[in-house]
Structures are given as C-alpha cells and as structure tokens.
Design a protein that fits this description.
106 residues, mainly alpha, 4 helices
Length: 106
C-alpha cells in the first residue's frame, strides 16, 4: 500500500466526522499507519494471541487516545487564556504518558 493509498483511506474515513482534522493530524495518522517502527499492532484476529495481552493492548490504545484528546484540550485552553485549566490538563497528560508502555513513549 502506498502513502497515497493510505492518505486516501484516512481522508475517506475522516470525511464523515463532524470536525475536520488539520492536515498535520492527518499526516500523523498516515505516518502511524505507514511507520513500521511505530506502534507494533498485532494481528487482532490471530487466535493464538493471549486474551490478557489483547486486553492490555486495548487499554494502552485507550490511554494513548486519552492523552491526545487531553493534550488538545490543554492547547485549546492555553490559547483561550484558561491557564489554570490548561495546567490541570497538562498534569493529566503527564500521568497518562507515564502509564504508556515504555516503547510507546517519545
């Protein structure tokens, strides 16, 4: 699959969402899909995968998604001058980051 194919799929998937994502976020999603050194996504249909590992993978993805959403809120709050709220969001981001698997941290 080429980068252009992935970009088209990401755009198609996101086209029905209420809030359009910025080009940078789309680029990050495409990079994530194409980057073999990024998240090591297992074959979720593999019946030999341990259910405990599958549940942990789901929890880790949820944590990563929560981090992204909380970080976006912190950025919005800072831009709106709501510094105290932004700081709380940033503290939450730090907590979430610290619970990510070490190989997922940047």
């Amino acid at each position: 699959m080429t980068r252009k194919d992935v970009e088209e799929r990401v755009h198609d998937f996101l086209s029905d969402k209420r809030a359009p994502l910025s080009a940078r976020v789309v680029e990050m999603l495409v990079d994530l899909v194409l980057d073999s050194t990024g998240l090591n996504v297992p074959n979720l249909d593999d019946m030999t995968i341990d259910p405990h590992e599958l549940r942990q993978f789901g929890r880790d993805l949820t944590t990563l998604a929560s981090y992204a959403l909380t970080k976006a809120n912190a950025m919005d709050n800072r831009k709106a001058g709501k510094i105290a709220i932004a700081q709380l969001d940033e503290q939450r981001c730090e907590q979430l980051y610290n619970t990510l698997p070490p190989e997922w941290r940047w």
